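Sample pair:
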Amino acid sequence: MSYARRPAWVLGLLRGGPVRLANFAGRGADASYAGDQMDPSITWKYVREVRDRWKGPFALKGVMSADDARLAVDAGVTAIIVSNHGGRQLDGAAAPLDVLPQIVRAVGDRAEVILDGGIRRGVHVLKALACGATACSIGRPYLYGLGAAGEAGALKALEMLRTELVVAMQLSGCADLASIDGRLIHRPT
């Protein structure tokens, strides 16, 4: 109930009308435009057809279940990007980190598994690697750096992430990336 601690925001929301998706501003009705950008007819058969035409590395973004991860690998995907697309589109969607371990188990070594979402600090990278991710995508940290100081800011943000990761590894007793494993993560049952 964090909204209860922000009455001014709630009042502004009530006065301002329906919520709008900022990245769709000026493109007509938000809901219809957003819906038009998604093709519900795409199936696993389509993914296989793309794989048949494209012989290079093939990543599929938006996988959020072990079953879909298995289907993706069976269709020829070489990298799975575990992402809920920022969680903005589906209220209550699982966080990518929460589904990451089951996807890693489902895929095994048949594909790379990349975590997309929620990486803000080096310790987040450590957690993703401990849950089995091959790599992490980052968005906000380097965009904030870019916005604050251009290329130098983006490079500084990446340097900060790296430094934070190294410190988190040191605090966890991990001498190298290979020593990061699931024992670092406590998940309540």
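The two ends are 24 Å apart (CA to CA).
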